[in-house]
């Protein structure tokens, strides 16, 4: 597909993340006013909340953009999503007759503060990166063999929705319980092994019913869009706590998402084939139309005071073994009720070479091989003040579809009240 | 403490679960009208939503009982909780001068349908039953040794809030992926090992801030009340999925809670000492005032068509090794934001003898020793049509504090759309 030209000139720049082909959904505020729904176009934001309020834009019978999140749009379902996308396209396409009335609703992104684009109903984190699973096995258990169920089940665990924050939110280093392999007793204090996980997040737009399984075709229709997702992880807390019931507090101090939700429709031109299957998937997980996408991904690290960020990894969303629709199907097939606003993390995305590893745990091989940044600093894990940033885009013919940066700094741990 | 007498005569019956000492919070409807907040007293429900609407009852500045859940009361905090309890006591105590105006707000429980008493924000399930942990180790891993972290960490995992239902809701047998030990490949279909877990649930009433750790004293103040909780489990799905990231779909098809939230204040007279510690707890988990309670618990099973239910287990909430306040502290200490309506399952409560085991997995020892019910039926796990019921009460001097039954039937699995 080629660039679709807009009368918003900055949207026609081949380097912008937000051409007319994209039209991602976010929530923004200007000068401290109330957050509201907006759509990114070039270097501007279209204030669709104001357009709905003045009657210029209407989807469905009742207002859905009068709240500072996109969940009410999600709940309208795929037909309304397609209708909204067409309306926005009509407003912003080159030569649109409505340009005169729409232009007043454009606000420069440079003036806006971005907020959480959705209310996260529940958050689930999957484990669909095969190279990541092999690396973690090799580092933690001494063997790169996949868990016995890995090629059959899109393995996942429930995460903590209350810890999901929008890009730009700084994260305090977590306190927790850890135990060194040679220590007799565990100890309590700030994590020494704070890490990132490079992931994509899929946002469930329409729900399912408790007790009622769903098919992969239904699951694909339920997905509203995608975000970049950094599942901050405390490897020392996680390592001591995770057996037998899985990750818990090592993953609950923060998960960052990009400010813009890129719709499934905007990503559709970038679908790519499913990976080769080492063993056949059970029929309930098979997809007629594979839900994999070609999205290049990048991780940047910038210590406090460093002149610029260093790229520490580059990989692609198409490295995952299970699509979001397959993960959603597995999630709901037992009868688990899914709801608008559920967020599904893909799992850490790592490619086959070190340059493609999506976590510091892998890049520094469990801390044994520190990486060197462009400014000469070395890092095994994240130090206080370090800024970590995820970037991603799908590359079209003369245009890009991006998510905006997913960034955050690690701040020092907060103290327990009454403790020294 | 002795029975406090009410002018509602049925509340003075030593067998009632709802004397004036209790005053638990629920949500009810009559004849299909809108669900609303109520308080159980004897065999009646006090329609506190209507009392607030007419101005007879007011807590705080704004209405909080005009919604069909107790979360808005929770958010007012402990002082308001104490104030409400005193007001209710004043309305219902024997000799109350307001009896004439309050009596019209009493509705027979026999006429009411009970609904979810809260909006569950997020649901976390812990693992605080030591005998249960030992039994599961022995059955699943061939050794009753506790996991290395068990005596140090109140182990927990995030569950699925969307699957939490009120007592009386029937549950469909889940579909899922399982693999027999001798099978080459997994298969897909209805679970053959559906089980219960006898638990108590603690309800978080006031929240914490992302990044900010809390103390056990703060955690104790944050707990609004307690419910009975049955964490329905599919042991065959769980067994195949749970390594390395913990339970997921084997626990996501339903979790039932009792219809009445018994407040922490009502349970306060039943506090009991903490269990002996085999190793000292880290300071952040130590409690000045241990949050353990003497609550007798019972599990009943009734096959479809059976004349009556058989009691299959009897134990006590005081069997747990970690209090809800300790679990909440651990949950939040990494900086995880907690919110009003968060539900914390205690973990399966099992005592040292078979008569006290809180799951069929333990009672039938992994299915190898089926139990025999009073009517002669045998069961290793739950069959379609079986009704399982949890009951619990704290025994005072001439009175009881109860939760109402936590009951549900297992119905046949629903089919995948388009599948045979």
Q: Report the helical percentage of chain A.
A: 10-25%
Give the tally of structural domains of chain A. 2
What is the makeup of the main sheet of chain A?
Answer: 8 strands, mixed
Q: What's the mean pLDDT score of chain A?
A: 97
Could you please say which CATH topology of the largest domain in chain A applies here?
Answer: Fumarylacetoacetate hydrolase, domain 2
What's the structural blueprint in terms of helices and strands?
2 copies of one chain form a homodimer.
Chain A (H helix, E strand, L loop, with lengths): L24 E6 L5 E6 L2 E3 L1 H6 L17 H6 L1 H15 L6 H4 L3 E3 L3 E4 L7 E4 L3 H12 L14 E3 L5 E3 L4 E2 L2 E4 L8 E4 L3 E2 L2 E7 L11 H7 E8 L2 E2 H7 L13 E3 L4 E2 H4 L3 E2 L19 E2 L2 E7 L7 E7 L7 H10 L9 E3 L14 H4 L7 E2 L5 E2 L7 E9 L4 E3 L3 E6 L9
Parallel strand pairs in A: 6-22, 8-16, 9-27
Antiparallel strand pairs in A: 1-2, 1-5, 2-3, 3-4, 6-7, 10-11, 12-15, 13-14, 13-22, 14-16, 14-17, 18-19, 20-21, 20-25, 23-24, 25-26, 25-27
Helix pairs in contact in A: 6-9
Commentary on this structure:
- Chain A is built from 10 helices and 27 strands.
- In chain A, strands 6, 7, 8, 13, 14, 16, 17 and 22 form an 8-stranded mixed β-sheet that branches. In chain A, strands 9, 20, 21, 25, 26 and 27 form a 6-stranded mixed β-sheet that branches.
- In chain A, helix 6 packs across helix 9.
- Chain A is globular and about 75 Å long.
- The model of chain A has no long low-confidence stretch (mean pLDDT 97).
């Amino acid at each position: 597909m080629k660039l679709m030209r807009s009368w918003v000139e900055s949207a026609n720049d081949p380097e912008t993340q937000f051409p007319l082909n994209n039209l991602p959904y976010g929530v923004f505020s200007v000068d401290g006013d109330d957050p509201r729904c907006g759509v990114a176009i070039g270097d501007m934001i279209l204030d669709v909340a104001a357009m709905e309020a003045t009657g210029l834009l209407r989807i469905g019978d009742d207002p859905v953009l009068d709240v500072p999140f996109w969940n009410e749009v999600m709940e309208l379902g795929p037909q309304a999503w397609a209708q909204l996308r067409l309306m926005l396209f009509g407003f912003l396409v080159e030569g649109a007759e409505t340009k005169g009335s729409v232009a007043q609703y454009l606000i420069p992104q440079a003036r806006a503060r971005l907020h959480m684009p959705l209310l996260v109903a529940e958050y689930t984190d999957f484990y669909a990166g095969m190279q990541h699973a092999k690396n973690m096995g090799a580092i933690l258990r001494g063997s790169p063999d996949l868990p016995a169920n890995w090629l059959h089940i899109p393995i996942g665990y429930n995460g903590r929705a209350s810890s999901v924050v929008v890009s730009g939110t700084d994260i305090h280093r977590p306190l927790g319980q850890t135990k060194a392999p040679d220590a007799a007793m565990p100890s309590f204090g700030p994590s020494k092994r704070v890490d990132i996980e490079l992931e994509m997040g899929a946002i469930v737009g329409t729900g399912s019913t408790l007790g009622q399984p769903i098919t992969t075709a239904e699951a694909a229709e339920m997905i509203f869009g995608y975000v970049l997702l950094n599942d901050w992880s405390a490897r020392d807390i996680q390592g001591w706590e995770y057996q037998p019931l899985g990750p818990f507090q090592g993953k609950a101090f923060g998960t960052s998402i990009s400010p813009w939700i890129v719709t499934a429709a905007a990503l559709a031109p970038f679908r790519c084939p499913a990976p080769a299957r080492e063993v056949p998937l059970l029929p309930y997980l098979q997809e007629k139309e594979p839900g994999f996408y070609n999205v290049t991904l990048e991780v940047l690290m910038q210590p406090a005071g460093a002149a610029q960020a260093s790229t520490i990894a580059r990989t692609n969303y198409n490295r995952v073994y299970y699509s979001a629709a397959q993960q959603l199907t597995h999630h709901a097939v037992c009868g688990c009720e899914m709801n608008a606003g559920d967020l599904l993390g893909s799992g850490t995305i790592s490619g086959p070479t070190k340059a493609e590893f999506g976590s510091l745990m892998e890049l520094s091989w469990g801390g044994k091989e520190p990486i060197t940044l462009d400014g000469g600093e070395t890092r095994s894990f994240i130090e206080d003040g370090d800024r970590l940033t995820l970037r991603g885009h799908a590359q079209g013919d003369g245009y890009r579809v991006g998510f905006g940066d997913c960034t955050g700094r690690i701040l020092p741990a907060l103290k327990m009240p009454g403790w020294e």
